[in-house]
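F.,

This is the one I mentioned.
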């Protein structure tokens, strides 16, 4: 018996065929009309959405509401549980910087963070000494969507640069705040990437401007008090295939311009001693060569994969002559030990690495060369390295958690190797780690590889195939999914679910090769790995195929679409959040924000017939057929610049057309948000509760 009885008639999308011929291959897209021609303008002003499109999206939302109507009480219960695990009036442990320490806090009922500072050695729990710098809830008042981009203070602590997006389109407005008075200066900088880098004198800053195609193509220098129109262009990136960011060094000696795609990088640096100079090129971009900088006084430490160092090494070069010809090896490349990032301080070099699928923090004394590791013994865990805001320090900060262990924040003395526990994540409604089990198992893949899968479940869960399972996957851009503490998934575990994360190829969970084996012509490995994880969990008795709900978002949403086409019978349901499912059409449209920078990840079907055929072979939208698809929930954001709303909209329309008797197919479009969904702290929990309610309903656990 269907868990979706008595559904109304789903919306029927009109077919308006558009044909396209590339490399002698002609394709016809019946739903191409759903791509709004005025998308650039609509992202900035959603009221400009075409009326026919708006009616269709609203009809889809109404159908989705009807299908999920019987889960309203469950959604409310799930939301209450998730909210109950979050300390509402929580605050961070402030980070010391000069005479102050800076932190963030939430108030009971608040959705947005509040930024504050205290005297350097003050007690952050003493609210009497806190100076409120920015109240996110106040700034968000009256807005359907509001996302802060942080607050960055000047070296003299007089001003703060903060940014916000109030459309969900990721066009950020920058403002300058007088931190003494709490008032904003007249300066308003529009259409930025969301952050900036202060000059040391605190009188000007650098920022990236987003062009009409939503690409950060220019770096400007803004002087406080001057109009944006008079800002000096510092650097323009002519290649639309590259992203760009701007930042400052810890010693305030340099402004960094970071230019990169997913496999190639280039840095240009500007000495803060002469802000009017032209940025200096460090090392010219070479396809497939990545590098990044950390200033260490008179040298730069350079993390790079140059010279076949697939899992990266660390070099050094004089700050006066940082060119590649002067690079000398400091930390050698070790195959299988992936160095993820690095930091430099007055007496120590620090880096985060992953070995055997688990993270470690490494410390090297810059004088003696002696090294030691910060590591933990659990079977699966997560480490976060936040470092320090000051260069001349022996103390850094890091966080630790596992699927069962709430996050712990430590200060660590690199000199004495002493850890100081600063904070343990509170779970107000209660949490006993002993009630849960976290494990890491390995699923045999189609080609002999083994796919790590992290599991969380209650100790009393029967492992006889009867438990439902939510299986999460991503598998792109080299992003590894950490096995950290997640209070939300406890609501599933408490309902008898096995919560599983498949660490599939396309991420870097097993080193850089793990990433390379899941991109371009090898992309199908990602999908096969996920299916192999599902098969292994069934074989080992953790669940059964008719109880597995698959979940993934963005590029992980492409994964969802691909496995739905490849093995629909192996999943009871699929949750695809902002799913990148119209891969071929998107990669053929070089006007879209992310298309040129994404070609090194997926292939360029405009230039290459071979790459066209790779993508066409797996693109979820292009491979929808007459199959027994399980129930599918697709989630979308109207102003999403990363995965445009029309991708899931077209996909759902085609699923209904090709397989009308399967499904059902539900589309939820957030008409006032973008890629990340709702922006508020608890608003986001409402969306997760909705997704989990779908999983519980499909699993028959209501």
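My design for it:
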């Amino acid at each position: 018996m269907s868990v979706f009885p008595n559904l109304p008639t789903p919306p029927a999308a009109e077919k308006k065929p558009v044909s396209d011929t590339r490399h002698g291959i002609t394709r016809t897209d019946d739903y191409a009309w759903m791509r709004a021609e005025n998308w650039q303008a609509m992202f900035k002003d959603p009221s400009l959405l075409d009326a026919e499109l708006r009616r269709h999206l609203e009809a889809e939302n109404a159908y989705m509401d009807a299908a999920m109507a019987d889960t309203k009480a469950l959604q409310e219960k799930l939301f209450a549980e998730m909210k109950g695990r979050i300390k509402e009036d929580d605050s961070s442990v402030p980070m010391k910087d000069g005479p102050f320490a800076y932190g963030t806090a939430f108030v009971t009922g608040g959705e947005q963070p509040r930024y504050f500072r205290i005297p350097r050695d003050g007690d952050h729990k003493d609210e009497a000494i806190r100076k409120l710098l920015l109240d996110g809830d106040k700034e968000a008042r009256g807005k359907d969507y509001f996302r802060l981009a942080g607050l960055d203070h000047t070296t003299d602590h007089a001003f703060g640069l903060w940014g916000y997006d109030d459309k969900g389109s990721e066009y950020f407005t920058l403002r300058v705040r007088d931190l003494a008075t709490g008032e904003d200066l007249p300066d308003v900088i529009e259409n930025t990437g969301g952050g900036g880098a202060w000059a040391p004198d605190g009188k000007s800053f650098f920022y990236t401007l987003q062009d009409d195609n939503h690409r950060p193509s220019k770096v400007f220098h803004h002087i406080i008090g001057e109009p944006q129109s008079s800002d000096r262009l510092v650097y323009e990136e002519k290649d639309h295939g590259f992203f760009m960011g701007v930042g400052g060094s810890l010693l305030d000696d340099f402004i960094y311009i970071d230019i990169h795609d997913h496999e190639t990088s280039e840095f240009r640096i500007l000495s803060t001693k002469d802000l009017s100079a032209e940025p200096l090129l460090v090392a010219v971009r070479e396809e497939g060569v990545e590098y990044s900088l950390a200033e260490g006084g008179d040298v730069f430490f350079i993390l790079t994969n140059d010279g076949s160092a697939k899992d990266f090494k660390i070099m050094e070069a004089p700050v006066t002559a940082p060119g590649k010809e002067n690079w000398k090896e400091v930390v050698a490349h070790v195959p299988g030990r992936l160095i993820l990032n690095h930091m430099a301080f007055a007496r120590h070099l620090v880096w985060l690495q992953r070995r055997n699928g688990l993270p470690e923090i490494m410390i090297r004394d810059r004088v003696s060369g002696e090294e030691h590791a910060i590591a933990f013994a659990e079977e699966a865990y997560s480490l976060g390295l936040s470092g320090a805001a000051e260069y001349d320090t022996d103390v850094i900060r890091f966080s630790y958690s596992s699927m069962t262990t709430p996050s712990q924040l430590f200060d660590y003395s690199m000199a004495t190797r002493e850890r100081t526990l600063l904070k343990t994540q509170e779970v107000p409604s209660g949490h006993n780690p002993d009630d849960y089990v976290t494990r890491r198992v390995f699923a045999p893949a189609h080609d002999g590889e083994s796919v790590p899968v992290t599991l969380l479940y209650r100790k009393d869960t029967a492992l006889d195939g009867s438990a439902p399972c939510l299986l999460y996957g991503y598998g792109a851009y080299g992003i590894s999914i950490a096995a950290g503490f997640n209070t939300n998934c406890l609501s599933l575990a408490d309902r008898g679910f096995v919560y599983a994360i498949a660490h599939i190829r396309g991420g870097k969970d097993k080193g850089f090769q793990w990433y390379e084996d899941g991109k371009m012509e090898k992309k199908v490995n990602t999908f096969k790995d996920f299916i192999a994880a599902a098969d292994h969990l069934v074989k080992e008795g953790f669940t059964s195929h008719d109880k597995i709900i698959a979940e993934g978002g963005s590029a992980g949403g492409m994964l969802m679409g691909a496995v739905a086409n490849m093995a629909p019978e192996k999943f009871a349901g699929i949750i695809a959040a902002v799913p990148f499912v119209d891969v071929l059409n998107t990669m053929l449209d070089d006007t879209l924000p992310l298309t040129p920078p994404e070609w090194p990840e997926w292939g360029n079907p405009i230039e290459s017939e071979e790459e066209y055929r790779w993508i066409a072979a797996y693109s979820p939208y292009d491979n929808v057929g007459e199959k027994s698809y399980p129930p599918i929930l697709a989630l979308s954001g109207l102003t999403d610049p990363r995965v445009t709303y029309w991708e899931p909209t077209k996909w759902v329309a085609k699923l209904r057309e090709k397989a009308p008797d399967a499904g059902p197919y539900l589309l939820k479009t957030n008409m006032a948000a973008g890629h990340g969904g709702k922006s508020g702290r608890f608003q986001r929990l409402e969306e997760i509760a909705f997704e989990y309610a779908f999983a519980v309903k499909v699993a028959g656990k209501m």
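The longest strand covers residues 184-198.

Talk soon.
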